[in-house]
TrEMBL record:
The keyword NADP does not apply. It comes from Mycolicibacillus parakoreensis. Residues 127-248 form the Acyl-CoA dehydrogenase/oxidase C-terminal domain. InterPro entries: AcylCo_DH-like_C, AcylCo_DH/oxidase_C. Coiled coil: none annotated. Keywords: FAD, Flavoprotein, Oxidoreductase. This is Acyl-CoA dehydrogenase family protein.
Length: 272
């Protein structure tokens, strides 16, 4: 495997700030166009792991969305011209198929504000890079939910002090952070060793962390977290959609377990 070019810390921070600015100003097809002008597809070709991590995690942290998963799948499939790569059907939880449209029209069936539509069937496509990308999106979304819950815990007072002082709240936030950082470590390992199993486990870990985060943050936020006026529900809906893309956490965990049983041993994924 060829060594991916590296980006120095200052350049990486500048890229992250630029991406977040674009993502807070546009969504959907408009954001696709903005990312194209920023050179997203060139970065994907030249440094796929870095570009994928930064772009998809930023999507999660900002709450924005774009159809860039199509680019990742097309690149792994060997498409030379990513600008002209069409959206293709992708596997979804429960054995179904969906297509992430490159349009501004939202879905009324599955994706809410995201143009994801169910389709009858599809052809097998490479999944490893797409699963890593979705994993980074899920961890970014998890960090956004954690930030909302943390701010609420510091601002909300009961019995004359912030609820962040209560152990039950602290434990939920701490467990959330541990789950997120564990998922990020799994995804980083999958990026260094981008095979099918590592990518599968990285996406499963990110999906599990996101579901844990959604539960814990909802408990910390209490009633306000259920309201349409609060941003939490947007991230929870996004987690449920992204977890189902290219296999849900439950399905991927079962697939990994079945592979280990069939092999009679668990493979060594990391040298400690």
């Amino acid at each position: 495997m060829s060594v991916e070019p590296t980006m120095d810390a200052d350049s990486l921070r500048l890229l992250e700030r630029t991406l977040r600015t674009a993502m807070t100003a546009a969504v959907g097809a408009d954001l696709d166009a903005a990312l194209g002008e920023l050179g997203w597809r060139d970065m994907l070709i030249e440094m796929p792991e870095t570009a994928t991590r930064v772009v998809f995690q930023s999507l999660g942290e900002t709450g924005s969305h774009a159809s860039v998963l199509n680019d990742v799948v097309a690149h792994e499939a060997g498409r030379a011209d990513l600008d002209a790569a069409p959206a293709v059907p992708l596997p979804f939880a429960g054995g179904s198929w969906v297509i992430w449209q490159r349009t501004a029209a939202p879905s009324t069936a599955i994706g809410g504000d995201i143009p994801v539509q169910r389709v009858g069937s599809g052809q097998p496509v490479p999944l490893a890079a797409g699963r890593r990308a979705l994993g980074w999106w899920l961890t970014g979304t998890s960090r956004a939910m954690l930030a909302l819950a943390r701010r609420h815990a510091l601002d909300r007072t009961q019995f004359g002090k912030p609820i962040a002082a209560f152990q039950a709240v602290r434990h939920r936030l701490a467990e959330t952070l541990v789950a997120i950082e564990g998922a990020e470590a799994a995804l980083a390992t999958a990026g260094e060793r981008p095979d099918e199993l590592c990518s599968l486990l990285g996406k499963a870990a990110a999906g599990d962390a996101a579901l844990v985060t959604a539960r814990h943050c909802q408990q910390v936020l209490g009633g306000v977290g259920f309201t349409a006026e609060h941003d939490l529900h947007v991230h929870v809906e996004r987690v449920l959609l992204l977890d189902g893309m290219l296999g849900s956490t439950r399905e991927l965990t079962r697939e990994a377990g079945a592979a280990a049983r069939a092999a009679g041993a668990a493979p060594r994924l990391v040298d400690l």
